[in-house]
């Protein structure tokens, strides 16, 4: 887990690393497969929401938010402002327009 700026939520959120995301992803697909009638959306994804809270200490009610809080989908932090590049292939920073240093 690492706190990173999320481009979709426009705020810093706890993001999952690959081993944490793997577990979250499994709980998410179990939620999708759980078609018990009368089950609320929140009850269906409760194991995922609980897991996220356990790892991050943050209460989240939207499973889809958790699923895009994955460190690996973003690039490294910008050399200028520290916000992550939007993708690993981004050539400039979407926050401060800093041109990415090519290595
Ligand atoms: Zn987000
Ligand atoms: Zn930047």
Describe the structure.
It is a single chain. This protein is of the alpha+beta class and about 100 residues long. It has a domain at about 1-75. The protein has 4 helices and 2 strands, in the order E-E-H-H-H-H. Strands 1-2 form a two-stranded antiparallel sheet. A hairpin with a 4-residue loop joins strand 1 and strand 2. The structure holds zinc ion (2 copies). One zinc ion binds near residues 78, 96 and 98. One zinc ion binds near residues 78 and 93.
Q: Could you outline the blueprint of secondary structure elements for this entry?
A:
Blueprint: E1 2-6, E2 11-15, H1 18-33, H2 41-44, H3 46-56, H4 63-67
Antiparallel strand pairs: 1-2
The protein binds zinc ion (ZN) (2 copies).
Question: What attributes characterize this protein structure?
Answer:
10% strand, 103 residues, binds zinc ion, single chain, 4 helices, alpha+beta, two-stranded antiparallel ribbon, elongated
């Amino acid at each position: 887990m690492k706190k990173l700026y999320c481009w979709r939520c426009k705020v810093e959120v706890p993001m999952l690393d690959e081993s944490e995301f793997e577990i979250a992803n499994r709980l998410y697909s179990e939620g999708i497969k759980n078609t018990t009638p009368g089950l609320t959306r929140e009850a269906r994804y409760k194991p995922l929401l609980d897991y996220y809270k356990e790892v991050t200490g943050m209460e989240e009610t939207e499973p889809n938010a958790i699923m895009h809080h994955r460190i690996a989908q973003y690039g490294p932090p910008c050399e200028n402002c520290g916000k992550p590049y939007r993708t690993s292939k981004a050539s400039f920073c979407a926050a401060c327009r800093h041109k990415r240093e090519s290595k």
